[in-house]
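Run log, item B.
One chain of 129 residues. Sequence copied directly from the ordering sheet:
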Amino acid sequence: MTDIGRFALCAEEVYLLNSAYFLLPPAGMDPKFMLGILNSSTIRFYLTQIAGTSGMGTSRWINNYVKEFPIPDASVHDRKSVIRLVERVLDAKATNPDADTTALEEEIDLLVFGLYGLTAEEIAAVDRK
């Protein structure tokens, strides 16, 4: 249980305990595109609409809910735009784990709003969260 999803890429073989999960992107989907979508404010908002909570307001980021996330069908251009920004975030964090990547993450959010076709009113609702 957490207030925010924390999705990451892992290229190594690892073992997870029962409180951690992994996802494999669908065939043909770049994992960095999926990472950008899953860490977006849109997905965080969506989870608050479908998931149960701990009773203390903390969302349950468990498999039953995460597997229901709708991943948008994006053009090659849009996918590449998200991937480039995700790569910049990953590069910055690899150099300095404390790097402030807020501006890049906000750019990803703007792209993701467009991929889901959100209206200005819907974006305002997501941004409030």
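Observations after the first pass:
- The radius of gyration is 15 Å.
- The chain has six helices and no strands.
Flagged for discussion on Thursday.
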